[in-house]
């Protein structure tokens, strides 16, 4: 009859429901067993956990506000699983921790790393035309494999940057086999080149190395070779170690102390010259939109607004820092500022 049919349908549905529940329970149990056996073996985490992206950035005593703004911009513009390695000198480490833990940055995943500047003894000339560039932390990028052990691929950023894109994109930069690092070249983008010309910047090796010196001529690198800026770098620690990049950089630092090899105009600072030598012809390239630079070279020279909107990363290299003096595109920087919970670091117009 009608009722009997309905009862049969009900029984069938109940049966299906039980099968489905059993299936789900079975899957759950199996997943639990799999993950616990993986944990036992201490093997790789399961694939659906996002890979950690290590970002190395320095925090110098007088400009920690720059570091925090950069971190804020990176963290706010990505869903990626980032671990920040914030590098400082011993006497600033507690202040770095406090700034992060007592501000909106408290949610970030971070490690504080101490850089011991004694490794630099005898490797830096004290007579630089821009003494501020002799800050020991400028050389942290030379020593990445000594500071970072858990990761093969690493991002290094200068503190005076703001990231507007998703940092995952930068991390996905392909490094060619045999290349320990990727940089963005100083001649890659016409708009950036016009800008360099406007503020009178060198964008060739001649701007960084003294071609009257024999050691430089002997390198056989044309002085008109386009330079690159090492303030944004994606690096492979395995290659770096295999090629002993740190040792090579130290060798050129030492030779510079003895023979004064860098150009006196020093477009981009003392850390750039040895990198130009060591990585000449053996580095990969970063998408130029991931390194729009020179924003700190002149308080008046400005990029077109539309161009800046497309930029993934802005770099205020040069002497006009956006936290010190009102200058080019300061507003873009200030929107990422994280106030100092200790009240020490202040924006110039607030003090
Ligand atoms: C890093 O370099 C090593 C050695 O050449 C290579 O095996 C590895 O695939 C590279 N990793 C990345 C992420 O490029």
Automatic annotation (TrEMBL):
Tagged with keyword Isomerase: no
Chief localisation class: membrane
GO molecular function: UDP-glycosyltransferase activity
Topology of the protein relative to the lipid bilayer: Single-pass type II membrane protein
Gene Ontology cellular-component terms listed: Golgi apparatus; membrane
Subcellular location: Membrane
UniProt xrefs under InterPro entries: Glyco_trans_8, Glycosyltrans_8_dom-fam, Nucleotide-diphossugar_trans
Domain of life: Eukaryota
SUPFAM superfamilies: Nucleotide-diphospho-sugar transferases
The UniProt record lists the keyword Ribonucleoprotein: no
Pfam families per record: Glyco_transf_8
The entry's keywords: Glycoprotein, Glycosyltransferase, Membrane, Signal-anchor, Transferase, Transmembrane, Transmembrane helix
Family: Belongs to the glycosyltransferase 8 family.
Name of this protein: Glycosyltransferase 8 domain-containing protein 2
Organism, scientific name: Cavia porcellus (Guinea pig)
Name of the coding gene: GLT8D2
């Amino acid at each position: 009859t009608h009722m009997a049919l309905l009862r049969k349908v009900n029984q069938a549905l109940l049966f299906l429901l039980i099968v489905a529940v059993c299936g789900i329970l079975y899957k759950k149990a199996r997943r639990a067993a799999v993950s616990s056996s993986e944990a036992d073996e201490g093997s790789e985490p399961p694939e659906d956990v996002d890979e950690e992206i290590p970002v190395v950035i320095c925090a110098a005593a007088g400009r920690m506000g720059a570091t925090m703004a950069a971190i804020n911009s990176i963290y706010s513009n990505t869903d990626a699983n980032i671990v920040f390695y914030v590098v400082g000198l011993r006497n600033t480490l507690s202040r770095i921790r406090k700034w992060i833990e007592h501000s909106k940055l408290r949610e970030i995943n971070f490690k504080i790393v101490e850089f011991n500047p004694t490794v630099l003894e005898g490797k830096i000339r004290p007579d630089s035309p821009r003494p501020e560039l002799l800050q020991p932390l400028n050389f942290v990028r030379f020593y990445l494999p000594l500071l970072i052990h858990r990761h093969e691929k690493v991002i290094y950023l200068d503190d005076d940057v703001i990231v507007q894109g998703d940092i995952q994109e930068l991390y996905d930069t392909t490094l060619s086999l045999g290349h320990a690092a990727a940089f963005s070249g100083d001649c890659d983008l016409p708009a950036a080149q016009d800008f360099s010309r406007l503020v009178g910047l060198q964008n060739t090796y001649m701007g960084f190395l003294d071609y009257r010196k024999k050691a430089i001529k002997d390198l056989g690198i044309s002085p008109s070779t386009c330079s690159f800026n090492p303030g944004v770098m994606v690096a492979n620690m395995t290659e770096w170690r295999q090629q002993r990049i740190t040792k090579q950089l130290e060798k050129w630092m030492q030779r510079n102390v003895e023979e004064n090899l860098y150009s006196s105009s020093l477009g981009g600072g003392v850390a750039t010259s040895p990198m130009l030598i060591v990585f000449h012809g053996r580095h990969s390239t970063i998408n130029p939109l991931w390194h729009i630079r020179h924003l700190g070279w002149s308080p008046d020279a400005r990029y077109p607004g539309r161009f800046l909107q497309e930029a993934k990363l802005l770099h205020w290299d040069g002497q006009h820092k956006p936290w010190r003096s009102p200058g080019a595109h300061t507003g873009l920087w200030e929107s990422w500022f994280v106030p100092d919970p200790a009240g020490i670091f202040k924006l110039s117009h607030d003090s």
